[in-house]
Specification:
Length: 290
């Protein structure tokens, strides 16, 4: 079948996308132990290769995969988990299905490719059984409590103490104690619920999320000498943590990003503003001098 040059260029793009995703799925399959997850990834990789060959029948050209894109998704899988990596890539496949649909009158076999792409999503839903997502609720608990409690505490301490070393010291002690307390509470809570989760792992996810948030929020007070600047950076870091984590959850678990982000951001910043006011009152009432 002869095709126009413009259509050929379009199909070459699709061909490269398919062969690139073939390599991504094969790489991700190699990171999995033998079992259902690995087999599903390998089957999807073969489907992607088949799609690339179908486009090749029209373009009559060999296309190399986008190596940087392969590396990107493999690295994302290592850092943030295979679930997040696959879901992020599948979002791109939704656009591909729409583009493929526009070719129904121009190219044969498009419907079969679209059907395969839809099957991918169904199979991936079964695939998504990753520990870090299973304990996402515990991570949310640790992050949310740390952001609300410590952001508020640091805001109050900033105006009350007006000394970066004292603020960092007090915040660290408060944060570490709270992280241990949250971890212990999550352990007891999970153990009493008997929901299939490992209480120790749940407590570790909660405590670790809390502790990492504490470190990031206190960091500006260890770097800068101006306490107002430190507070400003701490608030920016808090918003970035909220944005990053909620984007991660929204992609991996197909949940709304905006609702969760604004809910956590408004709550954390509101507590910080109120605590800042409390710090002002404490300093005035008790005549704190540093």
């Amino acid at each position: 079948m002869d095709i126009s040059e413009s259509l050929k260029k379009q199909l070459l793009v699709y061909q490269q996308n398919e062969i690139t995703e073939h390599h991504i799925y094969r790489k991700l399959a190699g990171t999995q132990k033998a079992g259902q997850n690995r087999e599903i990834l390998l089957n999807i990789a073969e489907d992607e290769y088949k799609h690339a060959e179908q486009w090749k029948a029209y373009t009559r050209q060999n296309v190399k995969p986008n190596r940087s894109r392969v590396l990107f998704y493999v690295m994302i899988a290592k850092l943030l988990g295979i679930t997040f990596s696959i879901k992020l890539m599948e979002r791109g496949e939704e656009n591909a299905q729409k583009n493929y649909a526009s070719l129904r009158d121009k190219v044969d076999g498009v419907d079969a490719i679209i059907e395969d792409e839809n099957d991918h999503e169904d199979e991936l839903i079964e695939l998504l059984d990753e520990e870090r997502l299973y304990y996402a609720g515990s991570m949310v608990l640790g992050l949310n409590d740390a952001l609300v409690e410590l952001t508020g505490a640091l805001a109050g301490l900033t105006l009350a103490l007006q000394n970066t070393v004292l603020i960092a010291l007090t915040g660290s002690i408060t944060g570490i104690a709270a992280a241990l307390s949250m971890g212990a509470s999550e352990y007891l809570s999970t153990k009493s619920e008997a929901n299939g989760k490992n209480p120790l792992r749940a407590s570790l996810y909660t405590g670790t999320a809390y502790l990492l948030t504490v470190v990031l929020l206190i960091l500006p007070y260890l770097i800068f000498s101006n306490y107002y600047m430190c507070l400003a950076f701490t608030l920016v870091i808090a918003v970035l943590i909220i944005a990053f984590f909620n984007y991660y959850i929204s992609v991996a678990k197909d949940e709304s990003f905006k609702h969760r982000f604004w809910e956590m951001a408004i709550l954390s910043l509101s507590v910080a503003a109120f605590s800042f006011f409390v710090g002002f009152l404490v300093r005035r009432v008790f005549g704190v001098e540093t």
